[in-house]
Design goal:
6 helices, 28% helix, 196 residues, two-stranded antiparallel sheet
C-alpha cells in the first residue's frame, strides 16, 4: 500500500490543524488487465509538502495521474480547495483543476529539436501567461531557479537526463500553481541539484 509522509514547513507552529487542501475519499482504480492500482484510498492532504512512500506497484503514480486529471478513477471522490472559499471536484472539474495545477510525471518527454527557452515559453502560453513581458520574466526566472539559464538556447535533445528533469520542474512551476504534483522529482538529478 501507499504510506503518506508529511513534511512540515519550519514556519508552521500552529497547534490547530489546518483544513485539508486536498481530500481524497475511497478512490479506486482497476486497469483493464485486472490490476487494482488504487483500492479505496482515502487521504486528507494539508497545505505544505506531502509525500507518498511505497514499493513499486503500490499505486503512487496511479494516484498522482488521477489527481492530475490524466486518468479516470473507477469510484471515489477527490476535492481541492479552490483558494476562494470553495472546492473543486478533481474528477469532474478537470479544466478548473488544471488551471491551478503543476505536474511533473515520472518520465517527462521533451521535443528534442526545440530550445529550453522556446519550449518553456510555449508551455507558458498554454498555461495562460499571455502578457509577453510577464511571461518572459516568469520563464527567465524559472530557468535561473532550476540552473538552466546558461543553456537556455540549447536544444533539449542535447540535455542530460538531469537537465531534462530540471526543465520538467520548471514547466511544473509555470503559472504559480496552487497544487504541484511531482512523481520521482529528483530522479536523474546530481546531489547538489537535489537541494536546489
Amino acid at each position: 500500500g501507499i504510506d503518506p509522509v508529511r513534511g512540515s514547513p519550519a514556519s508552521s507552529h500552529s497547534t490547530h490543524p489546518e483544513a485539508p487542501v486536498l481530500v481524497i475519499q475511497n478512490l479506486t482504480k482497476t486497469y483493464a488487465n485486472g490490476v487494482r492500482a488504487l483500492d479505496s484510498v482515502s487521504l486528507d492532504i494539508p497545505r505544505g509538502m506531502f509525500g507518498l512512500l511505497g514499493p513499486n506497484g503500490a499505486g503512487k503514480s496511479s494516484l498522482m495521474r488521477t489527481l492530475a486529471t490524466l486518468q479516470e478513477a473507477d469510484s471515489g471522490t477527490a476535492t481541492f480547495d479552490d483558494g476562494n472559499g470553495g472546492t473543486l471536484d478533481v474528477l469532474r472539474d478537470k479544466d478548473a483543476v488544471r488551471r491551478q495545477l503543476g505536474y511533473l510525471p515520472q518520465d517527462f518527454g521533451v521535443y528534442p529539436k526545440v530550445s529550453a527557452l522556446d519550449l518553456l515559453e510555449h508551455f507558458a502560453v498554454l498555461k495562460g501567461l499571455t502578457d509577453r513581458k510577464q511571461r518572459r520574466e516568469t520563464v527567465d526566472g524559472l530557468l535561473r531557479q532550476v540552473n538552466l539559464w546558461d543553456v537556455r538556447k540549447r536544444k533539449l535533445g542535447g540535455f542530460s537526463g538531469g537537465m531534462r528533469q530540471r526543465f520538467g520542474i520548471a514547466q511544473a512551476l509555470l503559472g504559480n500553481p496552487r497544487l504541484v504534483i511531482v512523481d520521482e522529482p529528483t530522479a536523474g538529478l546530481d546531489p547538489e541539484e537535489r537541494n536546489r
